[in-house]
């Protein structure tokens, strides 16, 4: 059991094998951006980065099913129901056993953000309600973005969902302020509301607590931080999450490290970080991200611990 977590650790492993060996109540913040059950392989043309998003019984350890049946009967009943609807039950099983372990290792003051999208969000929400408790649901964040491509048969799909849960009602939260624009000629009779002016077409604004929909641009093709990973998320998205739900020197875990964005955002904000991914390219990806980030010294690369269990 890992009672001490070394900062800047990259594990190349199945994340369950690592998480089950992390001590109880030891992680301050968990962010996970798991596969979305798209039933395809994600790969880039110019980089050997990617992952498989296909699920079958081969991805499930029978002992995990027995554990869920014995210790989480409500969750087991849900998985049984999924047999008669279209969602891939093996995908939900795969996530569920890992989320059970994440609940165990999260501190009472901690929070977990699970990044989803509309096709699976409602199933994962039920799983989270069962494992973390409906009372510990805090927010559903809608991340809005612009990107190319739109169908003529439906509204353009331009958002993801991020579910935020705590482990208890003692969770840490930092209410970040954002600009709320009111127009050029707006005035308020409320003396407690301070108006500011950008002197541009958006006009006057006040500072309000961040809302549950975030308009953050996707990773631009021209971005200096772009490394070619197929589902790379913008650093600003992760920074907002980390600033909202952790303090300096807190421990941030990302069990589906992917492009390594969580590690970079944590480093920029002086948080300790631990990331896990099956890919043996993850360390190279994180090194590449550090080299592209002017606010992080390249000396940090030498301080990364890499553990490959393959």
Main traits of this protein?
3-stranded antiparallel beta sheet; 9-stranded mixed beta sheet; Rossmann fold; 310 residues; 25% strand; single chain; alpha/beta; 2 domains; 28% helix
Your description of this structure?
It is a single chain. The protein has helices at 15-19, 62-71, 73-81, 89-105, 118-132, 235-245, 261-268, 282-292; strands at residues 9-12, 27-32, 40-43, 50-53, 106-116, 137-144, 159-166, 177-183, 196-197, 204-209, 213-215, 251-254, 272-277, 305-308. It is 28% helix and 25% strand. The protein is globular. The mean pLDDT is 89. The longest helix is centred in the first third of the chain and has 17 residues, at 89-105. It is an alpha/beta fold and 310 residues long. A hairpin with a 6-residue loop joins strand 9 and strand 10. The protein folds into two domains: 9-175 and 210-308, Rossmann fold (3-Layer(aba) Sandwich), CATH 3.40.50; 176-209, no CATH class. The protein starts with 8 loop residues before the first strand and ends with a strand. Strands 11-6-7-5-2-12-13-1-14 form a nine-stranded mixed beta sheet, sandwiched between helices. It has a three-stranded antiparallel beta sheet with strand order 8-10-9, with no helix packed on it.
């Amino acid at each position: 059991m890992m009672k001490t977590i070394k900062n800047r650790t990259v594990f190349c492993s199945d994340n369950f094998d690592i998480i089950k060996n992390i001590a109880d109540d030891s992680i301050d913040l968990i962010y996970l951006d798991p596969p979305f059950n798209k039933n395809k392989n994600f790969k880039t043309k110019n980089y050997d980065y990617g992952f498989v998003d296909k699920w079958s019984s081969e991805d499930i350890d029978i002992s995990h099913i027995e554990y869920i049946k014995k210790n989480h009967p409500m969750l087991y009943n849900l998985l049984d129901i999924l047999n008669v609807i279209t969602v891939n039950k093996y995908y939900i099983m795969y996530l569920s056993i890992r989320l059970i372990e994440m609940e165990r290792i999260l501190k009472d003051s901690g929070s977990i953000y699970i990044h989803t999208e509309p096709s699976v969000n409602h199933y994962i929400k039920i799983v989270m309600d069962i494992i973390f408790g409906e009372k510990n649901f805090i927010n559903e964040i809608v991340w809005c973005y612009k990107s190319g491509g739109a169908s003529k048969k439906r509204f353009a799909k331009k958002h993801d969902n991020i579910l935020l849960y705590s482990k208890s009602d003692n969770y840490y939260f930092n209410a970040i302020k954002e600009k709320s624009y009111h127009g050029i000629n707006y005035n308020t009779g409320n003396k407690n509301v301070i108006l500011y002016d950008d002197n541009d077409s958006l006009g006057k604004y006040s500072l309000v607590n961040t809302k549950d929909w975030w308009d953050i641009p996707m990773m631009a093709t021209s971005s200096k931080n772009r490394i070619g990973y197929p589902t790379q998320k913008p650093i600003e998205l992760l920074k907002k999450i980390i600033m909202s739900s952790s303090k300096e020197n807190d421990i941030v875990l990302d069990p589906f490290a992917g492009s390594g964005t969580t590690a970079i955002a944590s480093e920029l904000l002086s948080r300790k970080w631990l990331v896990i991914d099956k890919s043996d390219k993850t360390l190279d990806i994180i090194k590449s991200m550090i080299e592209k980030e002017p606010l992080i010294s390249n000396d940090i690369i030498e301080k990364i611990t890499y553990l490959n269990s393959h």
